[in-house]
Every structure is written in structure tokens, then in C-alpha cells.
């Protein structure tokens, strides 16, 4: 590998880490602002009722993805494309569960949200709606998605690593 190729790989790794951090921060901020919809069915309901409020669709999966989930993701992708909603595919459901599940449980324990004893939820589809506070992070994720599409990757993808 030439020094230029090595430098290019390092820059790409740094870019991916930056975008992953931006996505995580965006999702946490959206959850705290009550601008995050979690779950396939809840997302479908929101997309049906008010697609114009959705600014980002995150489709998360891992190796255990089943056919039913693939079908749901295909339908959601199609709807988001028709509605001009930015879509991002993410590998790392356990990371999302740890990142968002704790925050969700904390808000439930403090009196907001769902019952703290319930299951942490479906993290296979996340919709961000109208995030007021962290628009720079949304812009960074959106720019990554546009760049990926311009390089021939129709469905931009990120891998969230455990920390």
C-alpha cells in the first residue's frame, strides 16, 4: 500500500468515526427532545400521518435480520424515497439499544415516557422529526448520506462499534 493509500484509509476511518459520533449524538438529542420515533410500526404510523415532519430515517439491523424485517425495511425505504426523506442503514442494534435504551429508561423513571419496567423497545427503525437543538449533527449525517449516494451507494451505511 502506498503512503497516499494509507493516508486515504486513515482519513476515511476518521470520517466514519465522526459521522458515527454525530449520529449517536443526534439520536440522543432527538430522544431527549421527544423528536425520536422508535419501532417499525410506530414509524409507519408517523410516516402515514405526517411524513413532512420526518428529517431522517435510520434502519438498523444486524446479522440476525429475518425476512419479515427485510420486508418492512424495504417498504419503509420506498416510502422515504418517495417522500424525499434521508435514509441511513446502520449495523449495531446492540449499540443503539445501550445508547438509547438507558436514556429512555431514565426518562421513564423521572416520570416521562413509558413505564420503566417495559421492554427497551424496537430499535430496527428510528425516525428523527424536527430536531431543534442539534441541527449541525443532522447536517453532518445528511452530508455523509449525500456523499455516499454520489459515490454510487444508494443506501448509505454505517457500523456503530461498541465502546
From TrEMBL:
Residue ranges occupied by any Ribosomal protein eL8/eL30/eS12/Gadd45 domain in the UniProt entry: 22-107
User: Organism's domain of life?
Assistant: Eukaryota
Annotated Gene Ontology cellular component terms: cytoplasm; nucleus
- Signal sequence span is none
Quote any Pfam family the record assigns. Ribosomal_L7Ae
What GO biological process, any one, is recorded here? regulation of cell cycle
Could you tell me which SUPFAM superfamilies the record lists for this protein?
Answer: L30e-like (SSF55315)
Matching entries from InterPro entries are given as: GADD45 (IPR024824), Ribosomal_eL30-like_sf (IPR029064), Ribosomal_eL8/eL30/eS12/Gad45 (IPR004038)
- Homology family: Belongs to the GADD45 family.
* PANTHER family in alphabetical order: GROWTH ARREST AND DNA DAMAGE-INDUCIBLE PROTEIN GADD45, GROWTH ARREST AND DNA DAMAGE-INDUCIBLE PROTEIN GADD45 BETA
Supply the name of the protein: Ribosomal protein eL8/eL30/eS12/Gadd45 domain-containing protein
Q: Which organism is it from?
A: Muraenolepis orangiensis (Patagonian moray cod)
